[in-house]
Each structure stands twice: as structure tokens, then as C-alpha cells.
Amino acid sequence: MSLKRCLFLLSRAPNRASCLRSTVAVIGKGSAGASTVLRHCTGETGASGFISCRNASSSSAAKPPDTSLFVPLHVKATDNGEGSIGAELTQPLDKSEVLKVLNRFYKRKEMQRLAAENGLDARLFHQAFISFRKYVLESDALGADLHIILNDFCCDAGHVDDLYPYFMRHAKQIFPMLDCMEDLRKISDLRVPANWYPEARAIQRKIIFHAGPTNSGKTHHAIQRYLTAKSGVYCGPLKLLAHEIFEKSNNANVPCDLVTGEERTFVNPEGKQSSHVACTIEMCSVTTPYEVAVIDEIQMIRDLSRGWAWTRALLGLCAEEIHVCGEAAAIDFVTELMYSTGEEVEIRNYKRLTSMTVLDHAVESLDNLHPGDCVVCFNKNDIYSISRQIEARGLECAVIYGSLPPGTKLAQAKKFNDPDDPCKILVATDAIGMGLNLSIKRIIFNSLVKPTVNEKGEKEMDTITTSQALQIAGRAGRFSSMFKEGEVTTMHRDDLPVLKEILSRTVDTIETAGLHPTAEQIEMFAYHLPDATLSNLIDIFVSLSQVDGLYFVCNIDDFKFLADMIQHIPLNLRSRYVFCTAPINRKQPFVCTSFLKFARQFSRDEPLTFDWVCRHIRWPLVAPRNIKDLVHLEAVHLTLDLYLWLSYRFMDMFPDANLIRDIQKELDNIIQEGVRNITRLIRASETNTSSGTGTDAIPDDDIPLHRTFPKDRGLNAEDLPEARQQKQGQRRIRGSKMLGYRTLDTKQDGSLSSRLVQEGLLSTDLLEQLQREWAASQANGEDPWKETAGSGRKINSKGKKKNK
What we know:
Its main location: mitochondrion. It comes from Acipenser oxyrinchus oxyrinchus. It is found in: Mitochondrion matrix, Mitochondrion nucleoid. Keywords: ATP-binding, Helicase, Hydrolase, Mitochondrion, Mitochondrion nucleoid, Nucleotide-binding, Transit peptide. The protein is an alpha/beta fold and 804 residues long. The strands form five sheets. An eight-stranded mixed sheet has the order 4-3-5-2-6-7-1-8, with helices on both faces. Strands 9-16-13-10-12-11 form a six-stranded parallel sheet. The chain has a two-stranded antiparallel sheet with strand order 14-15. Helix content is 44%, strand content 11%. It has 33 helices and 20 strands.
């Protein structure tokens, strides 16, 4: 190496003093000596030196990250003028020789092992090498130091292992998390969530657990203490429950405010906060001091999606007394959780106030329904079908399901409860399990199978749990209703022993509580990984997160779904995070489209005014003519909910909340009118479908409109609707059998007509009518598939269409 080259490298070296001592020894030693001094001067110690640079403080117990989540960044070559210097000091690189050098480096097992010790597993090592090779071969101007050392290798000087520091430098550029892995682990350490709430830890709280089944009076006793306190907060799982406590408090002359995600109601005319507040559990404040707090339905702390809200309330509420209400299955867990905070738990057990009997016979036919009956279904298809069949028998029925607005649910509940109203039958989903006071004599399970979401966020059909069965069955024979004794049974005979077995089991004890990363934690993550998407940030966070045996990280699929949807829209991280926590139903295409438009308008700094929203939803809307219209109105109502939710987080950008609330009330009345006439809407849908004048098939909100599959596998046979249908067997078609449809075995008859009858989309009467029309057309010598002359097309003898 020439003295000129050595002096150039010396001028760039961070340890120039030691380099000066080495300069004399460099002269005359050739390229190998030059490479040695180069590594010494630039602070690169080679492969062997990196062994001592490993982070010895990293915990061996920490779980390895899921490196499949690490997305490599694209590194562009920057021309800083050194490329020409490197070529001037050596010579232009022979890219074919450089490729051979790089391939020798890649095959070195020692390099792969050393890279693994520094965070690059086989997957990352391969991705980093591909990126490094592309960078070296396609860059017109490499850094002088890299250019020189590659030239030395091409001249058979030095060892290929000396390329390792430059490879690692590039790897850390495309995988920046490698340089800050310990920091990321500390940020995502969720092992002591009690320490997140210093205000609560600063006081000595008294925990009182009111344990008992449905209709045992446990919540009533907690609310009595809440009403006598100087200040209090009620935290419930539903808006309906919060609204019920809000009204009960104010009727008892205890001023109480209402706080939900979409609504703030202050009873003080000047807008001052009252001493009491009823809220949905996600909205409770963990910094406001109270005398009494009530946490309802504590068993939901294990919910895979919302459990984090109960964990936050239980650990973080600043109240002298915290009254926890729920199933006895949560007693041991809550006691253990409070042990970690040094707080004792007082247990108060309650028994059911009225009796509940499991009948020995199934209903078997809608002809056997009686006043006070509630038929429970687990999808809207069965709701629509059964309600139509009930009214065909001259009976009126009320309908309640999850996607109905709260006002409509209350109106239907009032109609069913009114002793002077001819409506004596209720058809509902498990939405009746909480939040509605209903005068039910007998609960009838139309099915015992419902869609569930497993720990991986995948949807599957499963038999209801004991907890779910007790929650629903417990609605029969409420203490405050006209029926003092409750009964429960099934619609189908062979389901009854299954129900009895489910109800006889002990409810599974609660063992873990949910957690969810906060906006602050994600912001700290983003500081270290500024180029990662929000969806990727949350994935890496969960991958690195550490929780002890009492906790789990809640399902984040909905969050990631929204994050991916708006990733292309320019938003700051905090705003993006808030948008992605919006409680929307991602199975509703109109709601998702509205969410996207809201985010895009927000990013342009253009306020979403009342007029803008009216144009978007095409207000004013008319009463629904069929089921499809009704479902759309429900989606519009959810869209207005989304606007109100965002208006409390971005008041300046969503300024017309009051006007939106006014039209939402009008829309609620329109939906109520549609639900009152639901059988007429069903008939209209069936008429349109059978006559071919429309596509108003009865929707089912339990099945995603756009199903997605894991990226690591293709579409398998069991993913097809027919395969799922066969897998579920005859239990899946019981709703159709009860309605008078003929049951066909798809294994024996796989025709289209058989499947349509089996799925309840075609009745046997309609099928027979089609067969008669076919036979008549054949007898008359007509072509039943021939189109009319007005269509402009005809079918030739070979079955192909051709234009006239």
C-alpha cells in the first residue's frame, strides 16, 4: 500500500494516535498489511473482534424475536465523492471477481455462526447478504474503505472474513432493530403492569368482589354502595349498561354523567363534571380520584380482544373502594392479581334470586312456542328466517341482534316487555346476554354452535362454553320481571342432552388477564424504528413482549387491519394510532370505506363537516324496502358512531358532532321502523331473489365478506364453504329443517339445488315450482334457457352465445 493511501485512511480514522504508530510499519508490507491497518484505523476489528463486542448483558431467558416480522429497508448508495477516491487509490473493481468474493463469504459457516450471535439468524443473514450483494454490485460509488478492501480481496490479499464488519454495518442499516434490541425489549416488557399506575399504587385500596351467577343481585348491591358514596365511577362492558346506571343514578337524585366512546352527557347545565360518572370500561379515567368504583362483568378480563380494559381498570382505578362484580370463576385470579399490588380482597357470594329449570323436552316446532319465549340464534340468517316463520303462524315477535343501534334494541325490548303489546315472542342473538332487562319465561337455543375467534385471531365454529350458556340461560325468570321462574331448553331434541352436559360443567376458572400496548410504548418503538409501518411496529412489539404467567397480549388483528388500510395515508404516529383503535366492524364494507375516507380527509387538514358527511352517506335516507337496505342503514349508523368517536379525539377536525347526533337519532327511528316490519323486508328480499330482479340475499354478519387466509399457506379444500358445510354435518342445517326445508345429505347429492335447499336459500316449494316450469317448457318444446328477443343474444345449437 502506498503512503498516499495510508495517509488518506489515517485522516479518516477515529483512533489517529494509534494509527500514527502503525504508519511506519505499513510501508513496504503490501496489501495485506494495508488491510490490517485499515481495519485498525477505521475502528473495524474484523470477525474475531466482534466476539468481544457482543452484548454480554442480554438475558439468556429472553425469548428470541420472530425475525419473520423484520422487514428489510432499502439502502441507496450515496455518492459522497469517495467512490472516485477509492478507485484512484486502487483501481476500478472487477464485479465478476467481487461476486466470487461475496459468495465465498456467504458460504463461510463461521460467518453465519458469528452473525447469529449478533442477532442475524439464518433468515436475516440470507436477506442481509442479498441486500449487501446488490448494494456492492449495483452501486457506482462505494465508500473508499469498502472499495479498497474489496480490491485487496480481488488481488488475493487479506482474508474473506475481514469483510464481516462491512457486512454487519450494512445489515444494521437494513435491520435497524439489531442495534437497539435491548432497548426494544425493555420497552415491550409487560411483566409488571401494576407499576404503570403510580396514582393507584400511592393509595391503599379496598377490593370487594361480588360473586354470583346471572340474576343474583350482585351488581345491585355494588350499585347501592356507589349511589351512597361521595363520588363514584361505574365501568361496564356496554353502552346500554352505562346508560342504565346513568339513568338510575339521576332518578335517585345522584347527579351522574355519562361517558362512552361516542357520547359525553353532563347533567350540570354549565358543563361541569358531576361527582359520579357511568362509563364504558375503555373510557374510565385512571387518574381521577373516587370514593367508590364499580367494575362490572370482571370475567371479561380474559376476553381475547377487550380484556386489557378490565386489567387497566382493576389495576389503575384511583378509588378507596373497588367493587368487582362477576362470576365466581374469577375470584382466585383477582385475589392473586391483587396480591401482587399488596391489596386484600373481600369476597361476597350471592345465589340466584329465582329458580332456573332445564326442561326435559325440546320445543321441536315453532308451533309449540308460548308467550315469554325467547329463541336464541347465533347468526342473522336464522334470526330473519325464524321471525318470518313465527309471524306466518299469526304471532308477533321482537328481534334483537348485535348490529342494531342501541335505541332500536331498547325499543324492541320495550315492545316485548309490554304486557299490553301483542308481541309475546323474542328472537335474538346472544346480544341479550348483557345490557337489556327482558321479561323472558323460557330460553330456547336454536343451536349450540356459534362463531368464535381463537387465540390466533382465526374464526371458527365451536360449541358455546358453559359461561356463555349460563349467561344467556340466566336471562330467563329475571327477579324484576313478570316471570319468577326461568326455563331453558333447545329447539332440537338431540341438542338437549348436549345443553344439559354444558350447563352441568363447572365454569372454567380464569387464569390470565389481557394487556395491550399503549400509544406511548408504540411511540418509543417508532423512535428506534422510524421507517417501520405501524402494523409492523405492533407485530415486533408483541413478538418481543415479555409477560408473566398472569397476563397475555390481547388480539391485535383488528388494529393491524386498520393500520394496513390507512398505511398509505400520511398521518403522524399518534393520530394513526388513535384511528386504528377506533371500534369499527371490519366486516362492514361501507364502514371500512368511510373509515378510509375519514382518514384521508383528516390527512389533508380538511375538517369533516356536517355537509361533507351528509354527501357521503347520501342523507336523507328512506325507510328500507328489503333486508339489504336494512343492513346498509345499520352500517350507516355505525359510520355515524365512528364520526362521533373521532369527534371526541379530534374536535377541530370533526366539528359537527351535535348535528351528526341529531341525524343519527332520526336514522335510529328509520331502522326501528324497518325492524318492526322485518318480515315484510324478508319477503321482499326473497321475492327479489327468486324472481331474479335483485341480489338481496339475506346477509350473515357472522361470516366475513372478504375472508383472508394465513400468508404461509394456500387455499385448502377445508377453506371452501362446501367443505366447512360438510365438516359441520347436519347440525349446521337444523335451522332450515325446523323451517320446513327438506334436509339433503350433500355426500349423496352434491347438486346445486341440493346445496341451496340445505343452506336455506331455496325452499322445497320454490324448487318444485322451478321443476314444474322446466317440465312444462320441455313438453311445449321450448328452450328453457333461451333468452328473450330483447336481450340481443341467442344461444346456438352448440350452447354458445352469439350476438344477433
